[in-house]
Amino acid sequence: MSTAVDDDLWSAIGDPTRRRMIDLLLAEGRGTATTLSAHLPVTRQAVTKHLAVLDRVGLVRSEPSGREKRYRVDEAQLARAVAQLNSVGEMWDARLRRIKSLAEAIQRERNTDKQADKQRDRQPEKRSEK
């Protein structure tokens, strides 16, 4: 299973209405544009367009059912999306750990410099005698 980031897939998932449609299809198992539009604040035509986007990236599959199509989530493609998300999350976790490590090193260096300055301030000045 590839974890390379698929921009088209993430663009499709990035829309909140499409995410809600995926949730509804997962909960119900299958659905049509008509049944989905009953649960969404968009028209049936808008639902059909969103389903076309999800179908194009492989997140849903359709099968004819009378005058309509019944859609279901393609679980293999959804698993691929989850794997990509986990991969991106791990990459950002590593970046954030590195940033934290650098920030802590800078802070330690500043604390060391401050301590050295305090010690210098406490030492009496040496006068040179002639």
From TrEMBL:
Domain HTH arsR-type, chain residue ranges per copy: 1-93
Pfam families found in the cross-reference section: HTH_20
Entry-linked PROSITE patterns: HTH_ARSR_2
Region (Disordered): 106-130
Superkingdom to which the source organism belongs: Bacteria
Record's protein name: Transcriptional regulator
Organism: Streptomyces avidinii
